[in-house]
Structures are given as C-alpha cells and as structure tokens.
Amino acid sequence: MNLFSFTLSTGKEGFYDITSMVNDAIQTTHTSRGICVIYTPHTTAAITINENADPDVQSDLIYALNKTYPDRPEFKHMEGNSAAHLKSSTIGCSETVIIDKGELLLGTWQGIYFCEFDGPRTRKFYVKIIKD
Amino acid sequence: MNLFSFTLSTGKEGFYDITSMVNDAIQTTHTSRGICVIYTPHTTAAITINENADPDVQSDLIYALNKTYPDRPEFKHMEGNSAAHLKSSTIGCSETVIIDKGELLLGTWQGIYFCEFDGPRTRKFYVKIIKD
Amino acid sequence: MNLFSFTLSTGKEGFYDITSMVNDAIQTTHTSRGICVIYTPHTTAAITINENADPDVQSDLIYALNKTYPDRPEFKHMEGNSAAHLKSSTIGCSETVIIDKGELLLGTWQGIYFCEFDGPRTRKFYVKIIKD
Fold first, then answer.
1. Distances from the Cα of A115 to the Cα of A13, A112, B72, angstroms
2. Of the candidates A61, A97, A106, which has its C-beta nearest C86's C-beta?
3. For chain B, where are the E strands, in sequence order?
4. Which of B30, B39, B50 is nearest to B5 (CA)?
5. In C, what residues contact A, Cβ < 8 A?
6. What ipTM describes this predicted complex?
7. Nearest CB to C3: which of A48, A96, A100?
8. What are phi and psi of B99, to 5 degrees?
C-alpha cells in the first residue's frame, strides 16, 4: 500500500520529532529511491522540518509564532482557535522529502516535526511513499 | 495526461473552496491510490488547506494575514502589491495531498482553498495526479 | 537516478534564482511529464516560488520578513539565529513543481528561489524528478 497512519498524543502546544516513525515506514517498504509525503489531516496542527539538535530552537519557534500570530479580539470564529488555524496554514499541513539509498535525504541538522497549536489532543499523521 | 487546468474568477481577496474540483479530476482519471499536486502559477495567490465548516475561519485568516503582512511605506515594488507577494510565499503556491481508495485523504474538517491576495482577477490552478 | 545536487555560495541574506538549474536537471533526464521536488537540507534557508521580473519584489520580501520575524531578546538558542530558523519553517524547505511537455509548468512571472536567511555560507539543494 505504501501508506502509513500514525497516532500521537500532544500537549497544549509543541513540536514533536517524528523522524524515526517516518524512517520506519521507509524501512518497512524497502524503498530505495523515491519521495515521501508526510501529511496531517488536522487544521490546527502542521508538519515542518527544522533543527534536531538544540531543543531551544523549537521553544523559540513556538514563542515567536505566538508573538507573530496572536489571538486577536476581532476574530469571529466561536471556537477561539483562529490563531492556531493561521499557524497551520503558515507552516503547512505537509512536507515532501526525498528518499535515496533507502533513507530520508535529510540534512545533518534536519528533523521532521509534528506541530501542535491547539492541544492537548490525539492527533494523526500519514506517511505516503512514492517509489521511483 | 493526469494534468488538469481550472479557471477561477476572484474578488479583491478571499479563500475559495476548490476541493470538489480537485475531486472531479481524481474521479475522471479513476485513480485509486497516489498523490496529487494542486498548484497555482500566480505570484500573488496561494493554495492552502484549512477548515471547511465555519466560514469565519477564512475571514479571520484574511484579517490576521493583513495585520501580520501589512503594506509598508518602505516597499519599493512599483505595482504596490508586495504584501500580496509575501503572503503568497508564506502560504505557498501548492499543496500535495494523498489519494487513497479513489478519494483525497483529507481530514474531516479539511478543505482545499485557492487564496486570492491581489484581485479581482481571472486565476488558474493546476491539478497533477501521480498514480501509485 | 533522477536526483541532482547543486551548490550555491550565498551572502548574508538574499533570494537566488535557481530556475535555470532546475530546468537543466529536467533536460538532462529527458522528462516529458511528471513532478519535481526542489529541496534544501538546511534549517536556516528555504525554497520559494515568486516573481522573476522586478528584483524589488525580492528585496521587499526580505525587508518584510525581517520586520515580521525579528530577532527577539527572549530567544534562548545560543547560536543567535532563531529568527532564521523561523523564516525557514514559514517559507518551507521545499517546493513541488509540475513538469509538462519537457518543461517546468511555471507561471509567466514565476521563478524558483533559494532563500538565504543566515549566510554567508556554501549551501546545497537537491532536485528530484518523478516521471509519469
């Protein structure tokens, strides 16, 4: 099938490193070359790729996103989470990564992150593999 | 060919739900599994995926994008639409969606939107299908 | 292999037009139809698609990104480049473009840009082609 579904329990907000889960999917399918789409079906979450070494990068990103996209008194959406919807569209609900020699072709400092903007919730993401 | 072109008439700014048009392309090609790229060839528009239920989400997003990316007196581009160019690069000119069981694998609350940041105009977007 | 690696020398910050390099990769592989992923393995850089005509658009984008995502005294990451990491996640480290009739299916005014947010550095990006 080349399609995998993963579940995640999140806190109020945060970046969750899902790189090893994506790698597992690639190993399972014995894919040596192709691309891979990591996709979340939620509208107040996102997928991004960023530094995997210093956890301060993730907390700085969350801090700055909250400053850049604050809750605004003019928002009309009754659920009160419009800022989370905006972060989702800004960061984006998917990433596409190249697969080469049986592995994700990530940079040395790159990790794949699930971004929670309106938790805590049980969340899902998909990994779809397209082989060469 | 697995490539489709759609035309849209837009207002000054707004989010336009194009989910059913993308679904039609998938039905036409009888694709059961794969991925699908939705792409707009314009530089002051974008494609995003966000909530399809409450229209207040879309108006909140437009409101907040205008606050976050205002027109600035320092902008030099003579056409006067640099803020629209910035929104286009921030939201992005394409989305990639997984196809499974003959349908887009969207979340319950997800719709695919064409975002107009500098209308009114006649706009185009493409749907390209890659089958498994 | 359908996978190409390119190197780029960047300044402090800037948008670099890489469209012709991506087109060269497509010519080399004699791809008539498919998609193409342009991906950078760095966490303080990005790939975007925007106007290729007036260079003022690129300088306006850089100006506005610096205003929107300033360096903040609250940032904890010791390298001092958290703003560049945020710009990377906002613009995104890849773009997916459709290939048709042997060429990138770009809009008239669209060019593909490598975005440097924390140079000067020697940078890399990959082009991966998926044929129909």
1. 7, 10, 30
2. A61
3. 3-9, 14-17, 34-39, 45-51, 94-100, 103-104, 110-116, 122-131
4. B39
5. 1-3, 37, 39-43, 68-69, 72, 74-79, 82-83, 85-86, 88-90, 92-94, 96, 126, 128, 130
6. 0.96
7. A100
8. -110, 130
> Tokens 């129909």 label which residue?
C132
pTM of the model: 0.98
Q: Nearest 5°: phi and psi at A57?
A: -60, -50
DSSP code per residue over A45-105? EEEEEEESS-HHHHHHHHHHHHHHS---TT---TTS-HHHHHHHHHH-SEEEEEEETTEE-
Per-residue pLDDT tens, chain B, 132 aa: give them. 799 999 999 999 999 999 999 999 999 999 999 999 999 999 999 999 999 999 999 999 999 999 999 999 999 998 999 999 999 999 999 999 999 999 999 999 999 999 999 999 999 999 999 999
C105/B37 touch (CB, cutoff 8 Å), yes or no: no
Sheet strand arrangement including A110-116: A14-17, A110-116, A45-51
Rounded to the nearest 5 percent, the helix, strand and coil shares of chain C are 25, 40, 35
How far is the C-alpha of A82 from the C-alpha of C97, rounded, in Å?
30
Segment A61-77 mean pLDDT: 96
Q: Which residue has the tokens 């480049």?
A: C81
Nearest to C100 among B3, B43, B86 (CB): B3
| Predicted confidence band of residue A95 (pLDDT cuts 50, 70, 90) | very high
Burial class (CB in 10 A: 0-12, 13-18, 19+), C109: middle
pLDDT of residue A28: 95
